[in-house]
Specification:
With 160 residues, the chain is mainly alpha-helical. It has helices spanning 4-8, 13-21, 35-44, 48-57, 64-71, 75-83, 92-112, 115-123, 141-155. It has one domain (8-155). The N and C termini lie far apart (42 Å).
Length: 160
């Protein structure tokens, strides 16, 4: 029997897509189909391979500056983790930031029609964000909320 929390966003496309960007069932031990599923995995800390999958699946995050803004991990730390025989899990905070970034890419993909367009949008200055590039705002919770709100406004046809 599904709970009210699970029913609220069952099979939300951006949740399923965000999980795919992080490696899906190749990385996680169970499907991620709701925000509650995501919460549980974030609380446990994602396997280190989830970050590697995110970097393989999202071209723009391969840039050191973008990786640090989006997830809060330096490129050198990522390289060191990859070199480890059994990479350690991400912290819940790092997992949450990786999830939020993947979710934003998935949401933007739905709004703009393709992952390439979504990544392009994240890198371009936006009038509705006072000229900031969305990616530049992802280093803080407040900035991430601004990007999410702006993306929702675009989705509903309000561009400023």
């Amino acid at each position: 029997m599904a709970t009210a929390l699970q029913e609220a966003d069952v099979a939300a496309p951006e949740i399923v897509r965000a999980a795919e960007l992080l490696g899906g069932l190749d990385i996680f031990d169970r499907p991620v189909t709701s925000s509650l599923d995501a919460h549980e995995l974030i609380s446990e800390g994602f396997p280190g391979a989830a970050l590697t999958s995110l970097c393989e699946n999202v071209t723009m995050i391969r840039d050191a500056d973008t990786l640090e803004k989006a997830v809060g991990i330096s490129l050198r730390t990522l390289q060191r983790r990859k070199a480890e025989e059994s990479p350690k899990a991400l912290s819940p905070e790092q997992s949450g930031r990786a999830w939020k970034f993947a979710e934003l890419v998935a949401k933007a993909e739905g709004v703009f029609g393709s992952q390439d367009e979504a990544e392009h949008w994240l890198e371009e200055p936006a009038i509705g964000l006072s000229g900031y590039r969305p990616i530049d705002l992802l280093s803080t919770v407040a900035g991430t909320e601004l990007v999410e709100q702006y993306l929702e406004r675009i989705e509903f046809g309000v561009y400023t």
